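ok posting inputs for the iron/sulfur cluster job
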Amino acid sequence: MTINIDEHSGFCWGVVRTVQIAEDQLADARRNSNVYVLGNIIHNPREIERLEAKGLKTITLEDFPQLANIGAKVIIRAHGEPPSTYRAAWEHGIEIIDATCPVVTKLQERVRKFWDQGYQIVIFGKKEHAEVLGVRGVVGDECVVVKSVEEAVEHVDVSKKTVLFSQTTMDRPTFNAIKNVLKSRISELVVDTMEEIATEFHAKDTICGQVSGREDELKLFAQQNDVVIFVAGRASSNGKVLYNVVSSANPSAHFIESASEIEPEWLEGANTVGITGATSTPQWYMQEVAEHIKSVIRNFVS
Ligand code: SF4
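and the output
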Protein backbone atom coordinates (compact mmCIF):
# COMPACT_ATOMS: atom_id res chain seq x y z
CA MET A 1 0.00 0.00 0.00
CA THR A 2 1.22 3.51 -0.82
CA ILE A 3 0.57 6.35 1.60
CA ASN A 4 0.49 9.83 0.05
CA ILE A 5 0.54 13.03 2.07
CA ASP A 6 -1.05 15.91 0.17
CA GLU A 7 1.80 18.31 -0.57
CA HIS A 8 -0.61 21.26 -0.78
CA SER A 9 -2.01 20.65 2.69
CA GLY A 10 -0.71 21.94 6.00
CA PHE A 11 -0.97 25.37 7.57
CA CYS A 12 -2.10 28.30 5.45
CA TRP A 13 0.31 31.22 5.63
CA GLY A 14 -2.02 33.08 8.05
CA VAL A 15 -1.76 30.23 10.55
CA VAL A 16 2.00 29.85 9.94
CA ARG A 17 2.33 33.54 10.84
CA THR A 18 0.21 33.22 14.00
CA VAL A 19 2.11 30.16 15.23
CA GLN A 20 5.44 31.87 14.49
CA ILE A 21 4.39 34.93 16.50
CA ALA A 22 3.46 32.64 19.42
CA GLU A 23 6.78 30.75 19.17
CA ASP A 24 8.74 34.03 19.14
CA GLN A 25 6.88 35.32 22.19
CA LEU A 26 7.41 32.05 24.05
CA ALA A 27 11.13 32.10 23.26
CA ASP A 28 11.36 35.70 24.56
CA ALA A 29 9.32 34.97 27.66
CA ARG A 30 11.24 31.96 28.95
CA ARG A 31 12.07 33.80 32.15
CA ASN A 32 8.67 35.26 33.05
CA SER A 33 6.21 32.84 31.34
CA ASN A 34 3.50 35.46 30.99
CA VAL A 35 2.38 34.60 27.46
CA TYR A 36 -1.30 33.90 26.96
CA VAL A 37 -3.56 33.40 23.97
CA LEU A 38 -7.17 34.48 23.90
CA GLY A 39 -9.11 31.34 22.88
CA ASN A 40 -7.60 28.27 21.24
CA ILE A 41 -4.76 29.51 19.07
CA ILE A 42 -5.94 27.32 16.17
CA HIS A 43 -8.61 24.65 15.72
CA ASN A 44 -6.18 21.80 16.14
CA PRO A 45 -5.84 20.06 19.51
CA ARG A 46 -2.42 18.53 18.73
CA GLU A 47 -0.82 21.83 17.79
CA ILE A 48 -2.37 23.45 20.88
CA GLU A 49 -0.81 20.72 23.05
CA ARG A 50 2.58 21.30 21.42
CA LEU A 51 2.50 25.05 22.10
CA GLU A 52 1.13 24.60 25.62
CA ALA A 53 4.05 22.29 26.38
CA LYS A 54 6.27 25.29 25.53
CA GLY A 55 4.42 27.46 28.05
CA LEU A 56 1.50 29.00 26.12
CA LYS A 57 -1.60 29.40 28.27
CA THR A 58 -5.08 29.62 26.78
CA ILE A 59 -7.44 32.09 28.45
CA THR A 60 -10.82 33.72 27.97
CA LEU A 61 -11.88 37.35 28.34
CA GLU A 62 -13.12 36.54 31.86
CA ASP A 63 -9.49 35.95 32.88
CA PHE A 64 -8.43 39.53 32.09
CA PRO A 65 -8.98 40.86 35.67
CA GLN A 66 -6.54 38.23 37.06
CA LEU A 67 -3.90 39.31 34.53
CA ALA A 68 -4.22 43.01 35.29
CA ASN A 69 -0.91 44.86 35.59
CA ILE A 70 1.33 41.78 35.96
CA GLY A 71 3.17 42.27 32.66
CA ALA A 72 0.95 39.77 30.81
CA LYS A 73 1.14 39.51 27.04
CA VAL A 74 -2.01 38.25 25.32
CA ILE A 75 -1.85 36.99 21.74
CA ILE A 76 -4.83 37.69 19.50
CA ARG A 77 -5.17 34.68 17.21
CA ALA A 78 -5.67 34.68 13.42
CA HIS A 79 -9.50 35.01 13.70
CA GLY A 80 -9.17 38.53 15.11
CA GLU A 81 -11.15 40.19 17.88
CA PRO A 82 -13.69 43.00 18.18
CA PRO A 83 -12.50 46.47 19.31
CA SER A 84 -13.97 45.84 22.78
CA THR A 85 -11.23 43.25 23.45
CA TYR A 86 -8.45 45.75 22.75
CA ARG A 87 -10.21 48.24 25.03
CA ALA A 88 -10.52 45.67 27.84
CA ALA A 89 -6.82 44.80 27.53
CA TRP A 90 -5.85 48.46 27.74
CA GLU A 91 -8.06 48.94 30.81
CA HIS A 92 -6.35 46.00 32.55
CA GLY A 93 -2.80 46.98 31.65
CA ILE A 94 -2.38 43.94 29.38
CA GLU A 95 -0.09 44.07 26.35
CA ILE A 96 -1.72 42.79 23.15
CA ILE A 97 0.37 40.82 20.65
CA ASP A 98 -1.76 41.05 17.54
CA ALA A 99 -1.52 37.91 15.37
CA THR A 100 -4.77 38.57 13.51
CA CYS A 101 -4.43 37.24 9.96
CA PRO A 102 -3.93 40.21 7.59
CA VAL A 103 -6.81 38.90 5.45
CA VAL A 104 -9.13 39.16 8.46
CA THR A 105 -7.81 42.61 9.35
CA LYS A 106 -8.55 43.69 5.79
CA LEU A 107 -12.05 42.21 6.00
CA GLN A 108 -12.71 44.16 9.22
CA GLU A 109 -11.48 47.39 7.60
CA ARG A 110 -13.67 46.87 4.52
CA VAL A 111 -16.77 46.09 6.58
CA ARG A 112 -16.17 49.23 8.65
CA LYS A 113 -15.72 51.35 5.50
CA PHE A 114 -19.07 50.28 4.00
CA TRP A 115 -20.83 50.62 7.36
CA ASP A 116 -19.56 54.20 7.63
CA GLN A 117 -21.10 54.85 4.18
CA GLY A 118 -24.51 53.71 5.42
CA TYR A 119 -24.67 50.29 3.78
CA GLN A 120 -26.59 47.39 5.26
CA ILE A 121 -23.85 44.83 6.05
CA VAL A 122 -24.67 41.21 5.22
CA ILE A 123 -22.19 38.53 6.23
CA PHE A 124 -22.35 34.93 5.05
CA GLY A 125 -20.98 33.11 8.06
CA LYS A 126 -21.62 31.57 11.43
CA LYS A 127 -22.90 34.09 13.93
CA GLU A 128 -20.87 32.81 16.87
CA HIS A 129 -17.66 31.99 14.97
CA ALA A 130 -14.72 33.96 16.43
CA GLU A 131 -13.97 35.73 13.15
CA VAL A 132 -17.60 36.81 12.76
CA LEU A 133 -17.75 37.98 16.39
CA GLY A 134 -14.77 40.23 15.58
CA VAL A 135 -16.45 41.63 12.47
CA ARG A 136 -19.75 42.13 14.29
CA GLY A 137 -17.90 44.09 16.96
CA VAL A 138 -16.40 46.45 14.37
CA VAL A 139 -19.90 47.64 13.38
CA GLY A 140 -21.49 47.55 16.83
CA ASP A 141 -23.39 44.41 15.79
CA GLU A 142 -25.30 46.36 13.13
CA CYS A 143 -25.16 43.63 10.51
CA VAL A 144 -27.11 40.64 9.28
CA VAL A 145 -25.32 37.29 9.55
CA VAL A 146 -26.79 34.49 7.42
CA LYS A 147 -25.64 30.96 6.76
CA SER A 148 -28.13 29.95 4.07
CA VAL A 149 -30.20 31.30 1.19
CA GLU A 150 -33.34 30.84 3.32
CA GLU A 151 -31.91 33.00 6.10
CA ALA A 152 -30.88 35.66 3.57
CA VAL A 153 -34.40 35.79 2.14
CA GLU A 154 -35.90 35.98 5.61
CA HIS A 155 -33.57 38.47 7.30
CA VAL A 156 -32.06 40.85 4.73
CA ASP A 157 -33.91 44.16 4.22
CA VAL A 158 -34.11 44.39 0.42
CA SER A 159 -35.07 48.09 0.47
CA LYS A 160 -31.57 49.13 1.66
CA LYS A 161 -28.33 49.58 -0.22
CA THR A 162 -26.40 46.51 0.80
CA VAL A 163 -22.94 45.00 0.75
CA LEU A 164 -22.33 41.26 0.97
CA PHE A 165 -19.25 39.80 2.66
CA SER A 166 -18.26 36.28 3.57
CA GLN A 167 -16.52 34.86 6.60
CA THR A 168 -13.16 33.91 5.06
CA THR A 169 -13.62 30.15 5.43
CA MET A 170 -17.14 29.55 4.09
CA ASP A 171 -18.05 27.56 0.99
CA ARG A 172 -18.31 29.32 -2.34
CA PRO A 173 -21.39 27.50 -3.81
CA THR A 174 -23.64 28.67 -0.95
CA PHE A 175 -22.08 32.14 -1.10
CA ASN A 176 -22.87 32.35 -4.81
CA ALA A 177 -26.43 31.20 -4.23
CA ILE A 178 -26.92 33.93 -1.59
CA LYS A 179 -25.30 36.49 -3.91
CA ASN A 180 -27.69 35.56 -6.74
CA VAL A 181 -30.82 35.70 -4.63
CA LEU A 182 -29.86 39.10 -3.19
CA LYS A 183 -28.92 40.42 -6.65
CA SER A 184 -32.39 39.59 -7.91
CA ARG A 185 -34.04 41.51 -5.06
CA ILE A 186 -31.78 44.46 -4.19
CA SER A 187 -31.19 47.31 -6.66
CA GLU A 188 -27.92 48.46 -5.04
CA LEU A 189 -25.92 45.39 -4.04
CA VAL A 190 -22.14 45.37 -3.73
CA VAL A 191 -20.28 42.07 -3.44
CA ASP A 192 -17.01 43.15 -1.91
CA THR A 193 -13.79 41.83 -3.39
CA MET A 194 -11.25 43.45 -1.04
CA GLU A 195 -9.68 44.65 -4.28
CA GLU A 196 -6.41 45.80 -2.68
CA ILE A 197 -5.49 42.22 -1.88
CA ALA A 198 -7.60 40.36 -4.43
CA THR A 199 -4.71 39.48 -6.71
CA GLU A 200 -2.44 38.36 -3.94
CA PHE A 201 -5.11 36.10 -2.44
CA HIS A 202 -6.84 35.07 -5.70
CA ALA A 203 -9.97 36.54 -4.12
CA LYS A 204 -13.18 36.94 -6.09
CA ASP A 205 -14.88 37.86 -2.82
CA THR A 206 -13.94 37.67 0.83
CA ILE A 207 -13.61 33.89 0.93
CA CYS A 208 -9.90 33.31 1.53
CA GLY A 209 -8.00 31.93 -1.47
CA GLN A 210 -6.11 29.67 0.95
CA VAL A 211 -9.40 27.76 1.35
CA SER A 212 -11.24 28.12 -1.96
CA GLY A 213 -7.99 28.00 -4.00
CA ARG A 214 -7.38 24.47 -2.76
CA GLU A 215 -10.66 22.97 -3.94
CA ASP A 216 -9.62 21.79 -7.42
CA GLU A 217 -6.33 20.20 -6.41
CA LEU A 218 -8.02 18.68 -3.35
CA LYS A 219 -10.68 17.04 -5.55
CA LEU A 220 -7.94 15.64 -7.75
CA PHE A 221 -5.99 14.34 -4.75
CA ALA A 222 -9.16 12.69 -3.40
CA GLN A 223 -9.84 11.00 -6.74
CA GLN A 224 -6.25 9.78 -7.07
CA ASN A 225 -6.37 7.80 -3.80
CA ASP A 226 -8.53 4.79 -2.95
CA VAL A 227 -9.07 5.97 0.61
CA VAL A 228 -8.63 9.48 1.99
CA ILE A 229 -7.97 10.37 5.61
CA PHE A 230 -8.86 14.00 6.27
CA VAL A 231 -7.25 15.36 9.44
CA ALA A 232 -8.63 18.45 11.18
CA GLY A 233 -9.99 19.78 14.44
CA ARG A 234 -13.76 19.25 14.62
CA ALA A 235 -14.22 22.96 15.41
CA SER A 236 -12.47 24.04 12.20
CA SER A 237 -14.80 25.79 9.73
CA ASN A 238 -12.46 25.41 6.78
CA GLY A 239 -12.00 21.77 7.84
CA LYS A 240 -15.72 21.19 7.29
CA VAL A 241 -15.71 23.00 3.95
CA LEU A 242 -12.64 21.17 2.65
CA TYR A 243 -13.81 17.79 3.94
CA ASN A 244 -17.06 18.24 1.99
CA VAL A 245 -14.97 18.77 -1.15
CA VAL A 246 -12.99 15.59 -0.43
CA SER A 247 -15.96 13.39 0.44
CA SER A 248 -17.93 14.49 -2.61
CA ALA A 249 -14.96 13.48 -4.80
CA ASN A 250 -14.27 10.21 -2.98
CA PRO A 251 -16.90 8.40 -0.88
CA SER A 252 -14.13 6.49 0.92
CA ALA A 253 -13.07 9.60 2.81
CA HIS A 254 -12.90 9.74 6.60
CA PHE A 255 -12.67 12.77 8.88
CA ILE A 256 -10.43 12.32 11.93
CA GLU A 257 -9.12 14.60 14.63
CA SER A 258 -6.72 12.05 16.05
CA ALA A 259 -4.84 9.13 14.44
CA SER A 260 -6.32 6.76 17.03
CA GLU A 261 -9.75 7.17 15.38
CA ILE A 262 -8.62 5.27 12.27
CA GLU A 263 -10.49 1.98 11.90
CA PRO A 264 -8.49 -0.85 10.23
CA GLU A 265 -11.54 -1.74 8.07
CA TRP A 266 -11.29 1.65 6.33
CA LEU A 267 -8.00 0.53 4.78
CA GLU A 268 -9.08 -2.92 3.63
CA GLY A 269 -8.38 -3.53 -0.06
CA ALA A 270 -6.92 -0.05 -0.61
CA ASN A 271 -3.78 0.30 -2.74
CA THR A 272 -3.38 4.00 -2.02
CA VAL A 273 -4.26 6.02 1.06
CA GLY A 274 -4.15 9.80 0.86
CA ILE A 275 -3.71 12.02 3.91
CA THR A 276 -4.77 15.64 3.76
CA GLY A 277 -6.21 18.26 6.09
CA ALA A 278 -7.44 21.76 6.86
CA THR A 279 -5.48 25.01 6.89
CA SER A 280 -4.93 24.48 10.62
CA THR A 281 -3.57 20.92 10.34
CA PRO A 282 0.20 20.78 10.79
CA GLN A 283 2.30 18.76 8.35
CA TRP A 284 4.09 17.11 11.28
CA TYR A 285 0.80 15.63 12.46
CA MET A 286 -0.03 14.25 9.01
CA GLN A 287 3.37 12.51 9.13
CA GLU A 288 2.35 10.98 12.48
CA VAL A 289 -0.95 9.83 10.95
CA ALA A 290 1.05 8.16 8.13
CA GLU A 291 3.20 6.34 10.71
CA HIS A 292 0.07 5.26 12.56
CA ILE A 293 -1.46 3.87 9.35
CA LYS A 294 1.74 1.89 8.72
CA SER A 295 1.50 0.34 12.19
CA VAL A 296 -2.21 -0.43 11.70
CA ILE A 297 -1.34 -2.22 8.45
CA ARG A 298 1.51 -4.16 10.11
CA ASN A 299 -0.85 -5.35 12.88
CA PHE A 300 -3.49 -6.19 10.33
CA VAL A 301 -1.10 -8.34 8.30
CA SER A 302 0.55 -10.12 11.25
S1 SF4 B 1 -7.50 30.61 5.94
FE1 SF4 B 1 -6.99 32.60 5.01
S2 SF4 B 1 -7.99 34.10 6.35
FE2 SF4 B 1 -7.86 32.20 7.51
S3 SF4 B 1 -5.93 32.35 8.64
FE3 SF4 B 1 -5.49 31.26 6.73
S4 SF4 B 1 -4.77 32.88 5.32
FE4 SF4 B 1 -5.84 33.89 7.03
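notes: Confidence is low (pLDDT under 50) at residues 196-203. The chain has three domains: 2-10+212-301, 13-100, 103-210.
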